Amino acid sequence: MLVVGIFGSACCKVMVEEYPEGEEASFVALVDGENALLLILLKTINELGMGIRGPILVNGWVLSVTYLDSTVSILVLRPIILPTVEGTAVEGCKFVGSLYAGLVIEKKSWMPKLTDLET
Predict the structure, then answer these.
(1) Under a CB-based contact definition with an 8 Å cutoff, are residues 88 and 95 in contact?
(2) Residue 107 region by backbone torsions, left for phi larger than 0, else alpha for psi between -120 and 50, else beta
(3) Domain of 55?
(4) Among 35, 66, 85, 102, which residue is least crowded by beta carbons within 10 Å?
(5) DSSP-H helix ranges across 21-113
(6) CATH code at 86?
(7) What pLDDT is stored for residue 87 in this prediction?
């Protein structure tokens, strides 16, 4: 889209605010409109030829994640998932379903950075 110029002069410059370096992961939570429950933490795999053997691969996710522990899940649940759940309720549109948070767990700080949030 940028190379072809679909967006006209808006394609001339691209600004990257931040490029967090670290492990990609996915956080999936079940939401009932008021509460959220961690369903699973997954390591994101972008290439099948990364030499990974053993764990089950589903849509680019590896189901066994050793570096993501309960501390990281709290660091995702409290500042990212729960405010989203509360915000939709305040707006009069309680969300019920599953929330997917794409993350990068930073190398230096081990703090999760949100890259995308989907339902």
Answers:
(1) yes
(2) alpha
(3) 20-118
(4) 66
(5) 70-76, 82-90
(6) 3.30.470.20
(7) 95
